Amino acid sequence: MPVVESSREVPVPPAVAFAVSQTTGATRLRWDRFIRRQVLLDGATAAAKDVRTLTVHRAGFRMVSRYVSYRPPTSVGMAMESGPWFFERLGGGWRFAEVPGDPGRTLATWRYNFGCRPAWLAPLAERVGSLVLGREIERRLAGFVRGCADPEVLTAVGEDPSAVGAEQ
């Protein structure tokens, strides 16, 4: 099963990075250009383990996923329940770790694994998918880095934008 992973440092502590990663609505769209829309399902009002979400990709692909882990401020994991026809399975995890020696910075690591269908096409589709998904994750993570420095996003998660990076 192919695995795609990318990491970047962001100028906020892990708790803030985690909070930014879980934003929704207009705040989420300020930094996450990967999605057109994302909503919690089944009456959920906040993310938590076993909560399901509907995510609509900017190209219109729809996916229902479930939080398989939710451990603020260090990690979150999801698994696809239903989605685009070409994914047999898709899972992802986002980790947030303090940069050693710098409690005001976080190393954000996003890792996805997937399998493609139909089986006869999977070997080629998974090679191409690794390149495409890898590029998408890099772009999405770059947006996350911008979001962790965006005063409106930081204010939305209860962080004082003027304090970001002040410890450095």
TrEMBL record:
One Pfam family, short name: Polyketide_cyc2
Cross-referenced InterPro entries: Polyketide_cyclase/dehydratase (IPR019587), START-like_dom_sf (IPR023393)
Superkingdom in the source lineage: Bacteria
Identification of the protein by name: Polyketide cyclase / dehydrase and lipid transport
Species: Auraticoccus monumenti
